[in-house]
Amino acid sequence: MNFHDLPKQPSIFLSYWNVGKLLYGALLLFIIETLFYYVKFNESLIDGNWYIILFWLWCLLFSFIHMFLVMADIWSRFQNYKRAKDQIFQHGFKTKIAINYTGSKCQRMALMAAAKELGMDKEVQRFYEKLGIGWYHFIPKFMLKDPLFFFRSYFWSRTFLERYYAPKFDFRNQQKALS
Fold it and tell me: Origin, by domain of life (predicted)?
């Protein structure tokens, strides 16, 4: 594959959106939840019942922390997207590459966004269909296989702490230069 064969490349902001649009919905819900729990927590402070205060404080902290976890998840999926895009551009669509991104809906969305920008989204879709993965498979496989996933380092490193990936190719500028 070469730069002449690529579809028009979207802006970096549109790519970031396409990779994490499901997670942006979750982020919005956690923001709304945090505001709701903040109001309830303040109301409970006036009432003075310690059990209720602790309940609303726990809810507030839970949703507040999740906002940052979702943002880290979005960032990590964008790293997956950049890596997948480079790999597909270099080697074409290979099941060996795609299998690395089947673990969660968000990882599959990152791969799909990269493949779509390279004009190979049909191959990825056929691959998912062959594996029996549908659009409705939201729960990551590792959560079903390992109920104690929250305490495993692979969960934290693959979900929230993906290392920065410097892309090997500048698709947008290469395409502009060829125009």
Answer: Bacteria
Residue 1 makes CB contacts below 8 A (sequence gap 6+) with: 89, 92, 118
Is there a domain that residue 151 lies in? Answer: yes
pTM, 2 dp: 0.87
Contacts of 32 (CB under 8 A, 6+ apart): none
Residues 6+ away with beta carbon under 8 Å from 67: 27, 30, 31, 34
156 lies in some domain: yes
In a domain, residue 6? The reply is no
Cβ(8)–Cβ(178) under 8 Å? no
Q: What is the residue range of 59's domain?
A: 12-166
The domain tally of the chain equals 1
Compute φ and ψ for 100, nearest 5 degrees. Answer: -70, -15
Q: What does the mean pLDDT of the chain come to?
A: 90
pLDDT 10s digits, 99-152: 999 888 999 999 999 999 999 999 999 999 999 988 788 777 777 788 888 788
Classify residue 137: in a domain, yes or no: yes
Q: How many residues in the chain?
A: 179
